[in-house]
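Before a colleague's protein record goes any further, I have to sign it off. What it holds is a sequence and that sequence's fold in C-alpha cell form. My question to you is simply how this chain folds and whether the C-alpha cells agree. Thanks in advance; the entry in question is below:
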Amino acid sequence: MYQKAFDGEMIAIQKYGDMPPNPEFPVVESDKDLVLHAELKLTESGYIMGSDGKKDFQDAEKVCISVELDSEERAKNAWNVLQEGGTIHMDLQPTFFSKLHGSVKDKYGVTWMFTVM
C-alpha cells in the first residue's frame, strides 16, 4: 500500500521467515510472514524504512510519520491511497507555511503528516 501511495521503489524487503533459525530468537510460524525490514525509496535521497511488530500490537497510534514531498501531485496521490479506510485529521490544504499540509491516519492506525513546500 505504501509503495503505491508514494509511487516508490521497493529497495529491500526481508521477512522474519527469511532469517536463519536461531534458538536465541525463535520465530513462531504465524510470525514468519511479518516484515523484518523494508526499505521504500521515495526520492533520490528520501526513504521510508520499517518493520512489522506482533500482529496484536496496538501501539501504531503512537506513531506519526511526517513526509515532506516536492510536488502537490505526489502528495495528493499518496493522500488518496492512505485515506482509503482511514481517518482524516486535517484535510490536505494550503496553509500559511506550505503549499499543502494535512494529516491522515491510515487503515493500519499509522498517522501521516504531509507537507508540500
Summary: Helices lie at 2-6, 72-83. The chain is about 15% helix and 35% strand. The two ends are 24 Å apart (CA to CA).
